[in-house]
């Protein structure tokens, strides 16, 4: 894949800045491409263009739906090309990158459905004596310009989760993709424009958080800021935008509870996938394995064997299951957390060393103190911890003992256990007989506590990006 310079389109105009940022492969450091380093001037132009597009109001719902469906068709035709771009810039194994493209297709298609079906309500005014003789109804109208700030780990589909519903809702977008992996976002935006979206309906400002993100959040034009990323950045955005609607999806230390009646072999297979795909760089990557003491040794032994068989290597190699972390700094952070846990008495049963290309080999860690970073903080790396418990109440207490509450997994054959856990677990999603890493793109996705303050999924996001407008009609003379 030849490295290219990629201009950004701002308010329908291709833009190049004097300074360019390099996008390099996390695997070997090779140059994947260059993008303009945008700043306050580019943000100002993008927001002005988005405000003008909103004021025109010339993109009806049926046309927005057609654009989203057409973009999905174009993306399907270019699956391999886009998947290789994701793998190159984000270091995501090619098999996972193809999966991300497939999920992005779903996100666009479900967004098209919302554009076609979004509606309000007929109000039951006749139930009130004072409203008798009146007809009331509501409709959903665009909230306004949306500022979308997206992370590196799903550089295509998480862009679609913000841009797709915004288009469906009738909201122009100013997008700031992750500086580590902006090229997939640019590719998706290009497909939307090719599919018929007016070019000034979506502007992209590339650059880092201080240079492009901060002025975008502070700009008076966006009515909403939708952010996926770290807890500190999310809280800073909320504090900086008190007059805007803010949607935050932030992270987790996703636990999975394994009851004694679970199929251990199946559980291990799912944790092997859910804890280590994309080197654990997912908000719902399986991190804390909570297993009943009666099957703890059996599961731990099988998990160590399974994790030891994972293939670490070049993301563009078809055989690779685990690639590098996004940066050397992140790699060093995870190594530090592993060392700190070991110093506190934890045992690394497999992995944790240096693999091909400097990647961290997938690790299983036991006897981790409850206050260690590997338990309390989001690892975002190829590491799972295993902790035993005596009964379901203890398992639920261990799972809930976290600042996060995005997804929790539960493996059991017992319906009573499922119902009891569902009521007691303080998480946005409880995934039964699978790892917490599962997500369907149409489901309501979000969490509690520090995991965020929104629900994503096109049907839910589009409602976050619209406002209800109510009409009450009284006949003359009534």
TrEMBL record:
Residues that span the membrane, as ranges: none
InterPro entries: Ald_DH/histidinol_DH, Ald_DH_C, Ald_DH_N, Aldehyde_DH_dom, ALDH-related_metabolic_enz
Occurrences of domain Aldehyde dehydrogenase (ranges): 22-470
Keyword Oxidoreductase set for record: yes
Top-rank taxon: Bacteria
Species: Iamia majanohamensis
Coiled-coil ranges from the UniProt annotation: none
Gene3D superfamilies named among the record's database cross-references: Aldehyde Dehydrogenase, Chain A, domain 1, Aldehyde Dehydrogenase, Chain A, domain 2
UniProt protein name: Aldehyde dehydrogenase family protein
SUPFAM superfamilies noted in UniProt: ALDH-like
The organism's taxonomic lineage, starting at the top: Bacteria, Bacillati, Actinomycetota, Acidimicrobiia, Acidimicrobiales
Family (UniProt): Belongs to the aldehyde dehydrogenase family.
Pfam families in the record: Aldedh
Keyword Iron annotated: no
Keywords: Oxidoreductase
GO molecular function: lactaldehyde dehydrogenase (NAD+) activity
């Amino acid at each position: 894949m030849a490295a290219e310079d990629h201009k950004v389109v701002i308010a329908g105009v291709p833009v190049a800045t004097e300074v360019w940022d390099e996008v390099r492969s996390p695997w070997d450091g090779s140059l994947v491409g260059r993008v303009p380093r945008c700043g306050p001037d580019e943000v100002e132009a993008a927001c002005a263009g988005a405000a003008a597009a909103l004021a025109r109001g010339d993109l009806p719902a049926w046309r927005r739906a057609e654009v989203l469906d057409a973009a999905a068709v174009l993306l399907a035709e270019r699956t391999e090309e886009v998947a290789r771009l994701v793998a190159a810039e984000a270091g995501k194994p090619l098999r996972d990158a193809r999966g991300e493209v497939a999920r992005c297709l779903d996100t666009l298609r479900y967004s098209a459905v919302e554009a076609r079906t979004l509606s309000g309500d007929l109000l039951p005014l006749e139930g009130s004596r004072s409203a008798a003789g009146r007809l009331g109804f509501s409709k959903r109208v665009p909230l306004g310009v949306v500022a979308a700030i997206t992370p590196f780990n799903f550089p295509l589909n998480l862009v679609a989760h913000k841009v797709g519903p915004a288009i469906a809702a009738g909201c122009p977008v100013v997008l700031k993709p992750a500086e580590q992996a902006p090229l997939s976002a640019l590719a998706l935006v290009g497909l939307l424009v090719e599919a018929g979206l007016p070019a000034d309906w979506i502007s992209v400002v590339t650059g880092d958080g201080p240079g492009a993100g901060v002025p975008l959040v502070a700009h008076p034009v966006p009515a909403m800021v939708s952010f996926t990323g770290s807890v500190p950045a999310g809280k800073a955005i909320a504090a900086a935008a008190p007059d805007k609607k803010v949607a935050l999806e932030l992270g987790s230390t996703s636990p999975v509870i394994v009851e004694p009646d679970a199929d251990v072999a199946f559980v291990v297979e799912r944790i092997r996938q859910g804890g280590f795909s994309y080197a654990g760089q997912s908000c719902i990557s399986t991190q804390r394995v909570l297993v009943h003491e009666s099957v703890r040794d059996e599961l731990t032994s099988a998990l160590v064997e399974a994790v030891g068989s994972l293939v670490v290597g070049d993301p563009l190699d078809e055989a690779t299951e685990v690639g590098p972390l996004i940066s050397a700094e992140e790699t060093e952070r995870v190594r530090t957390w592993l060392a700190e846990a070991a110093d506190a008495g934890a045992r690394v049963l497999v992995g944790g060393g240096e693999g091909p290309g400097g990647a961290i080999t997938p690790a299983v860690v036991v006897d981790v103190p409850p206050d260690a970073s590997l338990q309390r903080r989001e690892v975002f790396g190829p590491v799972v911890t295993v902790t035993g418990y005596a009964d379901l109440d203890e398992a639920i207490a261990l799972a809930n003992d976290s600042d996060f509450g995005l997804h929790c997994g539960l493996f059991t054959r017992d319906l009573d256990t499922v119902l009891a856990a569902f009521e007691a677990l303080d998480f946005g999603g409880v995934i039964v007989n699978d790892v917490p890493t599962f997500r369907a793109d149409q489901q309501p996705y979000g969490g509690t506590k520090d995991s965020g303050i929104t629900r994503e999924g096109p049907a839910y996001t589009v409602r976050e990006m619209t406002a209800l407008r109510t009409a009450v009609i009284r006949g003359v003379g009534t």
